[in-house]
Amino acid sequence: MVIMYMTTMANPCNIAADLNKYIVKEVCRAPKPKWTQLSGRRLQNWGGLPNPKGMLAEKLPDWLLKYTEKISALGAFAGKTANHVLVNEYKPGEGIMPHEDGPLYHPTVTTISLGSHTLLDFYKPVCQTQSETPQTEESRYMLSLLVQRRSLLILQDDMYKFYLHGIHGVCEDILSEHVVNLSSTGAQVCNTLLRSTRVSLTIRHVPKVIRTNLLLGKK
């Protein structure tokens, strides 16, 4: 089953305009070493570094805990509590290549978007068998979602496990019929949306963790 669930943040997480500014302010207040500059974006990692042997758990800051707890209460992680957050900052013209999130996380990804919209594109994975058709990014493209600012996006099941997702590095988005959720956003085909700086909170649950007190030999 494929689940694509999107709500405005006014409901489950109550992100009003003033709280939007507050969260962005907290993101910007993070010490400079907390930021990692990547190609097409920069990010902050909160909660620990996921690892096949187990993530060394770190306490989330209070300004993040409020929203990880609310999202967990929605049942997004099958009764588990979110314990990991990636904060991404995208300037206009920046994006991320098609990718999958991998097996280190519970198979659900939840994303709070602040500051700007984006288009999230989905792709079929590269087929490992021989094919006469060149497997380009264009040929593997499936659909797009218009991710609005101050929204919560929850991706589960096939959309998480089997398909890749990415964001084109452009300064504006021209909406097409391939954007499957237009009717719920108020936007229309052929609308042009200018991007501004977008901050996203990618909130997930890492099942395999190592508690600090275990490393210290405490009970």
Automatic annotation (TrEMBL):
One of its GO terms (molecular function) is dioxygenase activity. Its cofactor is Fe(2+). It is found in: Nucleus. PROSITE patterns: FE2OG_OXY. InterPro entries: AlkB-like (IPR027450), AlkB-like_sf (IPR037151), ALKBH6 (IPR032862), Oxoglu/Fe-dep_dioxygenase_dom (IPR005123). Belongs to the alkB family. This is Alpha-ketoglutarate-dependent dioxygenase alkB homolog 6-like. It comes from Sinocyclocheilus anshuiensis.
